Every structure is written in C-alpha cells, then in structure tokens.
UniProtKB/TrEMBL annotation:
This is DUF3298 domain-containing protein. Residues 478-552 form the DUF3298 domain. Pfam families: DUF3298 (PF11738), WG_beta_rep (PF14903). PANTHER family: DUF3298 DOMAIN-CONTAINING PROTEIN (PTHR37841:SF1), GLR2918 PROTEIN (PTHR37841). InterPro entries: DUF3298 (IPR021729), PdaC/RsiV-like_sf (IPR037126), WG_beta_rep (IPR032774).
Amino acid sequence: MATNFLYAASLKTANGTKWGYINEKGEFEIQPEFNFALDFQKNGLATVEKDGKYGCIDKYGIIRIPFLFESTIEFSEGRAAVVYAGGFHVIDEQGTILTKKPYNYIGMFYDGRALVSDQDKESSFRYGYLNTHGDIAIPIQFETASDFTNGIAIVKLSDLQFALIDRRGNIVNVYPYFFVGYYGENLLAYRKDPSDLYGYIDLRGNLVISPRYRVAQAFEDSRAVVTETEDLQNRYGLIDRTGNYIIKPRYNDIMPLGEHRFAVGKALDEDKPYLGSRYALANWKGECLTDFIYDHISRFEQGIASVGDGKQAFFIDRTGNRARGLPVVRGADNVTLVGKLVRAMKGTRVAYFDRRGNLVWKQNTIIPLTSRYRVIEKQYEPNKDYLVYYPQVDGIKNEKAQVTVNNRLKELSKLKKIEPTEQLDYSYVGDFNVSFFQNNLLVIELFGYEYYFGAAHGMPTKIYVTINLISGRIYALEDLFKKGSNYLARVSSIIEEMISTDPQYDYVFPGAFQGITNDQPFYVDQDHLYIFFAPYQIGPYAAGFPTFKIPYTSIFDILDTKGEFWLSFH
C-alpha cells in the first residue's frame, strides 16, 4: 500500500455513509469502512470513527489508537485532549491516557501547557494548566484563563484583578481592571469597569490606546478590528497600533486574513446585519483590492486564499486576482488546497480535482441495494441559503406506490418553494443516509440543520422512514406490535427503567420523560428497536437526540411476528 498523501473521502452505501482514504488518482488506498474520517495530521495519524467512538489510524490503515474516545482527536505538541468515560483526558500519540483523573475541560497544548478546568468545593469552575505528562503544572485556581502564547498567558485572579503569568505560573504583572485579554503583538484589550469602553495597554500595564471602543479585538499584523457603536447596525473599522483608523468604522464585518490582508464586509441588509455580508479583499493600508463580490474569503497561506461568490469557488492571490495554475470549481461553496489536489465542498458533499480542474473523485449519487432496488440522490437548491440532498427509491414494481413513496420522501426532506432571490432569515441543509436494509425493508434517515442567522446555534432535525419495497407501505411504530398489546406502556416502562438505572442517561431532565406516543420517532435494525427524542425534548441541547436501544428479546412477546412489518425483514 502506498504511503503518499491520502485524502478523506466518503461513499454512500446500503449501510450508511462510509469514509476511507483515496490517493491522488481517486483510488481507495484505505477502504471506506468508517462512519467518519478526518485528514491525516502532521504526525501521520488520522482520526476515524466507528460505532460512535473515535480512534486513529496510520497511512497503512492500521489502528494506532483504539476506538475508545467520545470526541475527535486533534494533536498538538504530541498530545491530544479527548473525552473518555464522561470526562476530559490527555493522551499521547500511542493512545496512552496520561491524566490521573477526568477533568471538566482540557484545551490544546501551546508552549507545553494545556488549559484545564474543573469544579472547586463550591461547584464553581476554575482554570489551571497541565504539562505534557498530564500533570498539573499550574494549579487550578483562576476564574478565567487563556491559552499560552509566546510563553505567557492572561488569567483572572478575582474581580477587578487580572494577571500575566509565565509557564511556571509566576505572576509577571497584575492589572486592576474589570477585563484584560485578547492578547496580540504585546498589546492587551482592557476595560476598567463594566460600564467603561475598551482600550489597549502593553504588557507592563502602560496605556497605549485610550478607551473608546465597544468591541476591541486582538492585534494582528499591527492592526486590530474595533467598533465604537452600540446600536444594531455594525460599524467595524481597522486601527493601527496608535489608534488611528486605517479603515473607517463603517463596515458590517472585518476579518484578519494574515499576510497583511483583510476581508471587509458590507451587510446584505443594513437593517438586518446578522444576515451576513458580501466581502471585498483589502490590503494593509485599508485599500480595497476587489469589489464586494464574495460570500467568504479564507485566510491566506503562502500567498493564496480561497473565495466563493455563490456560483463558483476559486483561489486568489494577495493582489486580489485569480491565482494562476489553480482551477475554478463551478457549483462549489468553497475550495481548499490539500496535498496535490483541490478539495471542493458543496453543502455536505466533497469532491477532489487536480490543479488543472479535472475531476479526480466525488461521492456517488446512486446507492445500489440489489439488482432491482436502488436509492438515487437528488439535489434541491432553490436559494443560496437552502440546500437539500434527498433520496428517491427506484425499483418498486408498483409504479403508483413508488411515486407515492418518493413524494412522501420529498415532503419529509423539507422541499418547499423558495424564491431564488429571497433573503431568508435562516439557512437549511438537509441530507440522508440508508440506515438499514434487509430483505424487503429499507430504512432511510433524513436529517437536517436549520440555523437562524445571529443565533447561538442551530437546530438539528432527524426522522427515519421505514419502507416496504414490495408494497411501498411506510410503517408506523404500532405496525411492529400485536394489536391490543399496549406497546406504549410496555416500551415506556423499559425506557423509564433505563433512565433510572443507566448512568449514561443521567442527562435526562428530571420528570421530562412522560412516556412514548403513537407518533413516536423510531427506527429498527436486525436485532433492536430504537426510540429517540429531539434535542431539548427530554434533555439538554448538548445531548443531541437521546436514543434508547431496546433488544427485540425484551419485547418479543408483544411483537407481531406474523405481521407485514416484521416479516419484511425477518
């Protein structure tokens, strides 16, 4: 097997979406067997996921870190913070757990230190730092703390008292202010008390720029993004180290891109700035090098950045012109240089092109089930903020039944009429997977993510459609059980027992579970019935979709084993 650059790639199969790794010719070097896969890191390891647990493989596909962890694994300085058994730990590149106890939070390592958080005796969260051995290097004692940068970090000692510390935890300087932070280029944003504006001090605490800002970001490339306004309309500007404006405060958004370049954004709607911006590229002097034509501009790396304008994605150089020798990918949202290839993303879909623009690989749009049946992927994009990949079933003998099934799949996939030029208050991306297929039963998972612009987070949705491929019938939960069996009470009782005895369900809000309903969301596989709930329904948002896995053996006496639903897959 080759050990050159490999690229994460996915295939839709009858067992769901599976990830593996292709070479630059588009051939799978590591077969698609994982539920999720990330790019290879600099240490030659890649994070992959199976059955809800994460581990790492090498470029030969050999498992180097076993599938034990509940979070993705990103290494820095030879260490990674992972979630294991409900808490954060530190592991090395062999997967050895170095920490002696779980913590509430562990960050990435910088300068040999990782930010760590835990609760004190009063149940308040406090912060400190770990060393690369997983031991406490600086005691957990601070009210807030930052990552280390150039051997220093900013911590909050108490109300109206911040400090600059070194890697040993020694206090280098103390600042008697309500807030001190956003360290960049030896300058710190500060706020004397809660009602004051932001200004900037140096590391010794000397005043450099007098307080006048409502927002004051960190300095980068001798520039900082600030605003003086407090109304709903954003008015961001760019200042130099003396506080003089390089770009006057009149833009909806300004983002540092590195290499002395900035993205400057004008609001799509001045009365609704949260809807987003159209961006131009500006130089270090504040001069716009392009018109306001881009949906996004990435950070520059070695003189190149990627842009997208809603119709295509491509690369520009530091002058704002199209970069030579790199392709334009029509229909893509964004592009990235990865090894020798260009990765293009459209919603949740990934494709790879060579640098001449020739397609090397893209995810399949037809999922074969048998020689007769298949699921075909369709795309619906009526608006720049609304994209749905939805399934259509092919092969049902009764054509009328097939039309009925496919119309229902469209409806449940949330296809709706939206004008192309309409500015929505939200974005929506929908997708699907084949969750289970056996004999004549097909279970399709439809999922989506709706995000209202300006909100703290979006809302995921999920539903399963259980289809008999001979009759075209879509089953409800009651179809699995004998008539008169009172399955609602029986299954509810099992779930109540799971909540009260299994620690993994400790997150369920007390008293929130009141039993299942006739229209209860569910899905099945060969051996289990799965009952699930929406976020917030019985648990916190962070819990996702609380799901209860019930073996058929525990409810076999009330299953309708002679019924159409059961016989369709047994």
